[in-house]
Amino acid sequence: MWSAFFFTTFDEQSSLERYMFYELIKEAGDAWWVQPDCPCQPFLQYTLERGKLRDAQIEAICHYLYLKVAHESKPLYQTFTEHFRSQTL
User: Fold this and answer.
1) CA distance 89 to 82
2) pLDDT 10s digit of each residue in the chain, 89 long?
3) C-alpha–C-alpha distance, residues 43 and 49, integer Å
């Protein structure tokens, strides 16, 4: 994988990096949402029961709430800096 990473063009590399960040956020956010003490569970349950939003909108809201609530509204650069130091998002 690394050899393919080093021999890609700038556009391909930036696309690969965005994908990796998305996967990091998605995996950590999914783990946070299933915890029984997640403070946003009632909101998600209400949103799903209403059925007024598309799946992509719900996913975007879930990612946003995870980043804001679980990481105490820290700027995104600070969240990722702390993640790469501790290797947990």
Assistant:
1) 8
2) 444 444 444 455 555 555 677 888 899 999 999 999 999 999 999 999 999 999 999 999 999 999 999 999 999 888 888 877 776 55
3) 10
Q: How far apart are CA 32 and CA 37, in angstroms?
A: 9
- Alpha-carbon distance 22 to 68, whole Å? 16
Instruction: Give the integer Cα–Cα distance in Å for 86 and 68.
Output: 19
Report residue 70 CA to chain centroid gap.
Answer: 11
Q: What is the DSSP letter of 8?
A: S
- pTM (2 d.p.): 0.70
